[in-house]
Design brief:
The structure is a homodimer of 368-residue chains.
Chain A lengths: L3 H5 L8 E4 L1 H11 L1 H16 L6 E2 L3 E4 L4 E8 L3 E9 L13 E7 L5 E6 L1 H19 L6 E5 L5 H12 L3 E5 L3 H13 L3 E4 L3 H5 L4 E4 L6 E5 L9 E4 L8 E3 L1 H4 L4 E3 L2 H7 L12 E2 H5 L13 E4 L4 H17 L4 E3 L11 H12 L5 H5 L1
Parallel strand pairs in A: 1-7, 8-9, 8-11, 9-10, 11-13, 12-14, 13-17, 15-16, 15-17
Antiparallel strand pairs in A: 1-18, 2-4, 3-4, 4-5, 5-6, 6-7
Helix pairs in contact in A: 3-4, 3-5, 3-11, 4-5, 4-11
């Protein structure tokens, strides 16, 4: 008869799942520098978008309720699987909770082992801003100097930093229906040395800007931007319209220029494009990055990036955070998977723990 | 100008995510008793199956590779959302890793907050056995005393305990192509006081048994049971055939009696039923539990439970483990979601951490 001690002598493969808590990610960002992190995630996104066809992609799996949505976003290539859990609850401020909270996982395709569990609330803010900057570098006028930021909530500082650092934007025109949100954004950006101007409505804020970023949170079909506000040569970075019933751009704004998206099947359902017919022309951004398709054709053209957030960006962001945590020797682990002396003896894992803690209420007693 | 200290004075809603590690779950099981846990999970499953129509259900989302599969299994009712991450890699024993590893989450539908992250490798073994017992209580002959266990791997002890404790099975007939697996199972069951008999092939093992449980792991269309092995009155508990290309029962076995499943759209793709035409009759188990449909009609009838494992069972198992951890005061927490003084000031969370750790490489320096 085998006993557990004998089994224990076999080679044991310990499953260590790295864990990055919200606090740890904040520490990593501060050690590395936030602008550096946004630039790093942007570089990882570009790298992954250039191998677009290596990935097994699908639209996210959403559970909708009356007050919000909870989504799972999986993606994988031959080596690494990733998924993100993310919610969207616009009324969460009533509970003093963030609208969007997230975490994610990297796993090994060869064995299915989860290698990393990480917070993604902070990291998603960085990856969304990085993605916007990647798109704008390919689509906005290279001489862009001013950007309007419509919506001054949790994502707005990250957008400002990304565009300042990666596109050289010098001045930010701010508007939000919540004056406190704008107060907060001005305080944070001023502290970082960024130049801001406050406006009393969207029309005034966007006037004369090279780039317009909309990043509002209401789960409604809004028209934050109307066609008359759009000027020749503007690049529209539409971030907030990202799920069915949640749009920011008037349909005629989308008709003013070529529209670019991440993953077409998902963007047609979730993006501002949900307002348009199924044959409305759109270009996937990876095709512009790879040189297969043209981005901006001329200086006075209006370009529109209809951002919704795609699983591959989280894959890139998780990869980046894991690599930086390793580089800075800031990794922790959690025990998510039992380490088994014999993989077929899962029961032995429980029995061994019982032996270790003493037979408080042993299975053998119950089975008698 | 606002500063972070001011923001901190507002009411703060701390997000505590409970965490149950593999070791902690093993301790909980030992404190509570393993048979008691299986019975508890079975009771929670029955409770949830009786409110079947309250749940938003979908087939699992699978990423297949040449060597295995990684799946996400979400389910929700109006209050609670759950999902499980689970892999299936039959060749993992080469790396001394379990074939199946899993973890899962419970979240609050009202706010999207993840309330619990738990290991599910051990818990899945318990819930699968509990589910088999729930089905067999509804379908097997009440006077059943012997069960064949074909496949003596990681799930087999849990099946034996569930059927001993919840159905009064007295003797287990064992067979596995891997003699070491049977050695291990006999060692573990003998230690628990359960009666076993070892056989040299499947045919001999199932002969004369009241219940036959197949729980083999090969990702192949196998015929573990052929029609000539099936005796009048047998209940077949088919556990191992659970994904496309992975079956255990000869098609003619399925034709010998009424077939029952968990969630029909998923079982037609993943169960042994994948071999049958789309109109092959099947009954969802919740309808038998609720009294809407008949289970076993007469003593000599052959009944077949084509188990694949459904997200709702994990929802039940996660609920049970959370409740028991709370009852035993064995909860831990992890910081998956940042606690924000002002939900719109996510950036402030990073800035506060920077202030606390000192400006190693501050954002303000980089932004200059």
């Amino acid at each position: 008869m085998l006993n557990h001690a004998t089994l224990k002598k076999e080679a044991v493969r310990r499953v260590n799942t790295q864990f990055l808590s919200a606090e740890r990610v904040a520490e990593i960002i501060n050690r590395k520098g936030i602008a550096e992190c946004i630039a790093g995630v942007a570089a990882y996104i570009e790298e992954d978008f250039l191998r677009w066809n290596d990935f097994d992609k699908c639209a996210r799996v959403a559970n909708h309720s009356a007050v919000g949505v909870i989504e799972l976003m999986p993606v994988a290539n031959a080596r690494t699987y990733a998924f993100k859990y993310v919610n969207g609850h616009p009324a969460n401020h009533r509970y003093n909770l963030p609208t969007v909270m997230a975490f994610g996982v990297l796993a090994d395709v060869e064995t299915g082992t989860p290698d990393l569990v990480s917070e993604l609330t902070i990291t998603t803010a960085i990856r969304t801003a990085a993605m916007s900057a990647v798109a704008a570098r390919a689509l906005a006028r290279p001489d862009s100097k001013t950007m309007a930021l419509i919506g001054n909530g949790a994502q707005s500082e990250f957008q400002a930093l990304a565009f300042q650092h990666l596109l050289g934007i010098e001045t930010f025109h701010l508007f939000d229906i919540d004056a406190n949100a704008t107060d907060k954004l001005i305080a944070n950006l001023t502290r970082l040395g960024l130049k801001t101007r406050r406006f009393s409505d969207t029309r005034k804020a966007v006037k004369g800007c090279d780039i317009v970023t909309t990043v509002t949170a209401d789960k409604t079909n809004a028209t934050i931007l109307t066609p008359d506000m759009i000027e020749p040569g503007m690049h529209i970075n539409g971030v907030g319209g990202d799920c069915p019933g949640k749009t920011e751009l008037h349909a005629d704004v989308l008709r003013q220029g070529p529209v670019f998206c991440e993953f077409e099947p998902q963007s047609r359902i979730e993006g501002d494009m949900q307002q348009m017919p199924a044959d409305f022309p759109v270009t996937e951004l990876w095709q512009v990055l790879s040189g297969e398709k043209v981005g901006r054709s001329y200086a006075d053209q209006v370009t529109i990036y209809d951002s919704v957030g795609f699983a591959l960006e989280d894959y890139s962001a998780l990869r980046y955070m894991r690599d930086v945590a390793t580089e800075l020797e800031m990794t922790e682990t959690i025990s998510l998977i039992p380490t088994l002396a014999n993989p077929k003896n899962l029961f032995g894992f429980i029995a061994d723990k019982r032996d270790a803690q003493g037979p408080v209420r042993a299975a053998v007693a119950l089975a008698a």
